[in-house]
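Hi F.,

I've been meaning to write this up properly since the lab meeting, where we talked about keeping a consistent format for the predictions we share between groups. The idea is simple: the sequence comes first, exactly as it goes in, then the structure tokens exactly as they come out, then a line or two of notes. No screenshots and no reformatting. I'm using this chain as the first example so we have something concrete to point to.
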Amino acid sequence: MSARKLGMVTFRGLQLAFIGLVVAHICFRWDYSAWWDFLPLVLAYVVVTVTNRVGGAPDSPRAAREPVAVAPPVTGRWSALNSPADRTPSHGIHAHGQTYAIDILAEPEPGSRPAFRWLWPLVRRPQDFPAYGAPILAVADATVLRAVDGQRDHLSRNSLPGLLYLMLIEGSVRELSGTHRILGNHVVLDLGNGTHAAYAHLQRGSLTVREGDRVHAGQPIARCGNSGNSSEPHLHFQLMDGPDPDAARGVPFTWQGIGVPRNGETFEAPSATAALG
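Output, unedited:
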């Protein structure tokens, strides 16, 4: 087990210890200060911070890599969210190999995607979003290393109460349950030269590949869904230097013909064949 993997396992164990101490303190009415219950939680975040620096930070000169040029993972009109073009780590943390990850949402027409609401409706069906069911493509000739299916596509969390529930409750439970619960249905491809592509939040039952398959750039491998730690149907895409998000560091990417779209930027993705040509 690598040091980074061991660090993530320890991180989750300390989080569970924090919950256990709080419950035990309430049940047994221990007389020491409740602040001591937070010690495992503090240690958990010290561990994950140190873990993400093991072997060099993802953005340090020792670990830095030139962006890897790959084809777009989608076709049509999309917009970017949590883009590494605006900041790194793009999602606020280096963990799970997502230093340079990006989220993209389908925008076939302006205003076609249901907007965020403060209160109502609390949730929407995945089918209400244009990204749901959109084809997801291999970004290069590659070998399928992971193809995880079977997790449900849940309702959206794109209202303020729904988002708070995702961030404060659901997200924490998924974190404790392991990376696979955060990614939802997902695929990891080995692109060669120490580069791996991960696709997350895929639609249940939509995967068209299995572990060990060879795929070609532009080949459909799944459909966009709303599984895992997701507020609405979208694709989470990232490159990593290993197949296991718990142990890998993020790798910067650029989409051929597009580059790296900034937050809120709308872009038109051609077919992978056209992008590579």
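Notes:
The chain has five helices and 13 strands.
Residues 55-63, 273-277 have pLDDT under 50 and may be disordered.

If this format works for you, I'll send the rest the same way.

G.
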